[in-house]
Every structure is written in C-alpha cells, then in structure tokens.
Design brief:
Strand content: 15-25%
CATH topology: TIM Barrel
Oligomer: single chain
Number of helices: 7
Number of domains: 1
CATH architecture: Alpha-Beta Barrel
Strand order of the largest sheet: 1-2-3-4-5-6-7-8
C-alpha cells in the first residue's frame, strides 16, 4: 500500500510547522476561520509556511511540502488577500462554498465535506476535476466546521472515498489511524485535534507517533498475512 499523504491541520506557530516537517507531514493547514481557536494572522501563517518548507529533509523524503490555507464560508476579499500575502499552495474550503466559488481563484483547492449519512457524499463529484487537488471527508458536527475530534462512520467514509484523491479526516489520532488506513486506504489523512495537547497546541511526540502509525500500517499491509 502506498503511504497516504499526511496533512497536519491547524498549525499555529512556526515551531510546530518545523516539527510537522520533521515528523514527516506532506502538507500543513493554516487556519483563517476567525472563530477557530487555531486561526492565525497573515504574518504568523507566512512564518509557519517558511518554517515547514525550510526544515531539514529526512531520508527518503521525495514529496514536496505544501501549505494549505483553510477557510469556511469566506468572502472573496479574504481569500484573495491570503493568496497575495501568504501564497499558499492549496486552498481548502470547509463551509458551504459552491464549486464555482472554489474554482474562481485559479489556485488548486480541497473541498471538505462534513458527512452524517451516505447521501451527504453525493455532492463530492461536482467539485472534482480541473483545479481540484482532492477532497476531504470529515464527521458531521452541528457546532464546528472541523477539528472536533469526532470520528466519521466507517460505512459513510467508505462510500465517500470511492472517488480518487480523497483525504480521511475527523477523529484521527495515533492509536486509530493505522487501522483506518488499512481498512479504508485513503489517498490522504488529515489530523488536527488528534495531535494536540489542547486546541491549537501541537505535540511533537503525537505528530511523530501519528506518522509512525501510518507508515507501520503501510508496511504491515505490504508484508501481507
């Protein structure tokens, strides 16, 4: 099994950006949702991105590191300002944004879907192709757009991830991600609260443990029964 892309979301300081890179993350998310405890300013986001991309490269590391700017129902001006000043590689939309809105900035994007039932995944196909870098499936929450630590139902995730380039999110942490990777074989995994000591504060030990769990699951799958 190919190792899934690993995205660590809600990075709030440059030190954590560097630790994410050293742990083996391929992507990091910097949050521009004002009500989120993980929201950052443009200046901090720039420093986080530089720290992430400038960290030493480990042995065997071949994937380019990418910074993802995370929004939820943003206005057009905010997205364009982030693109101009922070220069993210990918945009991520976690609200009710339309396919037209997501594509309108001319930057690769991920659309996140908060799913409660299988039919909630029907909208995914409308966002695929063109500038779409992939999509995320997350657990439904009535109170937050993400980072809640809720685990998506397995059967809903299986149904949603039938499309290519799907990232599994929602409730992932070092002690469950390996089993979920083996069962669902996602294109990527996305973690926020599962590598934190409290909202917005990342743990280097949990970051490293998360990556080890993903890589161990891939090695075990390759070894077979």
């Amino acid at each position: 099994m190919r190792r899934p892309w690993i995205k660590m979301c809600g990075i709030t300081d440059p030190g954590s950006g560097r630790e994410a890179a050293l742990a083996g993350a391929d992507l990091i998310g910097v949050n521009f949702v004002p009500e989120s405890p993980r929201a950052v300013s443009f200046g901090i986001a720039i420093r986080i991105s530089l720290a992430f991309k400038g960290a030493p490269t480990g042995r065997g590391k071949k994937r380019a590191r990418r910074t993802v700017a995370v929004f939820a129902n943003p206005d057009d001006d905010l997205v364009r300002s982030v693109i101009e000043h922070v220069k993210p590689d990918i945009l991520q939309f976690h609200g009710d944004e339309s396919p037209t809105f997501c594509r309108s900035f001319g930057v690769p994007f991920l659309k996140a879907f908060r799913l409660a039932e299988m039919e909630d995944a029907d909208a995914i196909e409308r966002y695929l192709g063109g500038l779409a870098a992939g999509y995320l499936v997350d657990a439904w929450s009535p109170v937050a757009f993400g980072g809640t630590g809720r685990l998506i139902r397995i059967e809903v995730a299986q149904h949603a991830l039938r499309h290519a380039k799907g990232f599994l999110a929602g409730g992932l942490k070092p002690d469950n991600v390996g089993d979920l990777v083996r069962r669902l074989r996602p294109f990527g995994v996305d973690v926020a609260s599962g590598i934190e000591t409290r909202p917005g504060v990342k743990s280097p030990d949990l970051m490293a443990a998360f990556v080890r769990a993903v890589e161990s699951a891939c090695r075990e799958d390759a070894a077979g029964p």
